Amino acid sequence: MIVPDKGIKLQNMQKRIALFGSTGSIGQQALEVVKSYPELFTIKVLTAHSNADLLIEQSKSFRPNMVVIVDDKHYQKVNEALSGLNIKVFSGERALTEVAAMDHYDIMLAAIVGYAGLASTWAAIQQGKTIALANKETLVVAGDLVSEAVIANKARIIPVDSEHSALFQCLVGENPNHIEKITLTASGGPFLGKKPNFLINVKKDHSLQHPNWTMWAIITIDSASLMNIGLEMIEAKWLFGLRNEQIEVIIHPQSIVHSLVHFQDGSVKAQMGLPDMKLPIQYALAFPERLPNNHKRYELKNFPSLTFEVADTKTFRNLALAKEAMFRGGNAPCVLNAANEIVVEAFLKNKIGFLEMSDIIEKCLETIPFLERPCMDDYVACDTETRKLALTLYK
Ligand code: NDP
Ligand code: MG
């Protein structure tokens, strides 16, 4: 166990965590962080979709008050395995929002993947909670409404996504009005430098080999297609209240500089470190403290050349489509995200090729009627409609 610094007032620091999406990549890394600081963090809620075995194992080890297994096929198994441990077990989608709205935790780590993470994050915002946000789709889909609701309910969002954590760290102590622009960095993924004649034959297994970050299937495909950084532009817009023109992307294959803020006096701040999601997770959970750890350190001498290059949006059209959706605003980012979730799943099942993903997303953006100022029900309907349309475009 890591002994916290003398400066940390344990009494004020103790945080009760609701970990939504505990069985995923971010969820599991978050539990590693929590395990390192048992005096600072306790787990009150764990949730999974269908990975009952891992949820049971995590619950036995971290002893939350409540767990949610969304897929009710697994309810009985989880309930029986946890009987006698004083852990309430719920199932179904509604249980996620009900538990999110409860009073028994201080900080939600929103680590459900995709659009499915929006409802529980939204419920927590309505209760004025602090949210460590990994689920970028919450802001991509409904960033305007989420931003307004955060202010109206005195909620707080602390980013977990590494680029946004970097920007957030660069902005501590700064006046946001002094930002000239931000630069988000992306590794470029496994196909950096490749052209369409190569990508046309790419299969799932090639795309799952990310050069720097260890991530799971969906986000790894999004990184390979540059959709991930496209979604992150939209995420940054809402998180930091930026104009579209203030957001740029640069490819940085070494993934050491995690993003940069350019200020109006010409000064540029960057946050750097080895690519390891445990750092932004730990930072978000402990904020405003920085906790000591023994993660591997970044040494300048081991990376004598850090390189940067402009993204090839002619080849990687998803980034151009995401940028277009960001500039159009309204329901366009919601359409982009829903179409992308469908095509990534289709690609992972070998039903469509790598380049077809962009064709289908583009068609959805052209076809779904534009709404300038959607309400939450409009977003829900738009997500459903887009998924239906995207499915018809390849089946
Ligand atoms: P994973 O796919 O690894 O995990 C997703 C989690 O969500 C699992 O606990 C899964 O449960 C649960 N889940 C899946 N579908 C549903 C659903 N319909 N309803 C409720 N729960 C569901 O995702 P990641 O951990 O990779 O990503 C989580 C979020 O963090 C994403 O928004 C991603 O963009 C973002 N992010 C991820 C990074 C990474 O390095 N992985 C980096 C930065 C951001 P089960 O296991 O039972 O299926
Ligand atoms: Mg990221």
Describe the structure.
The chain is globular and about 60 Å long. The chain contains 17 helices and 11 strands. Residues 1-7 have low confidence and may be disordered. With 395 residues, the chain is of the alpha/beta class. The longest helix has 17 residues, at 332-348. The protein has helices at 10-13, 25-36, 52-62, 75-81, 93-100, 118-126, 137-152, 162-171, 196-199, 204-207, 217-224, 227-240, 278-286, 317-328, 332-348, 354-367, 376-392, and strands spanning 15-20, 41-48, 66-69, 88-91, 107-110, 130-133, 156-159, 179-186, 247-251, 257-263, 268-272. The relative contact order is 0.11. The strands form 2 sheets. It has a 7-stranded parallel sheet with strand order 4-3-2-1-5-6-7, sandwiched between helices. It has a 4-stranded mixed sheet with strand order 9-8-10-11, with helices on one face. The chain binds NADPH dihydro-nicotinamide-adenine-dinucleotide phosphate and magnesium ion. Magnesium ion (MG) is lined by residues 161-163, 232.
Query: Whole-Å distance between the termini?
Result: 52 Å
**Compounds present?**
NADPH dihydro-nicotinamide-adenine-dinucleotide phosphate, magnesium ion
How much of the residues is beta strand, in percent?
5-15%
Structural class: alpha/beta
What are the secondary-structure elements, in order, as H or E?
HEHEHEHEHEHEHEHEHHHHEEEHHHHH
How many DSSP helices?
A: 17
Basic shape: globular
Gyration radius, rounded = 21 Å
Q: Order of strands in the sheet with the most strands?
A: 4-3-2-1-5-6-7
Main sheet summary: 7 strands, parallel
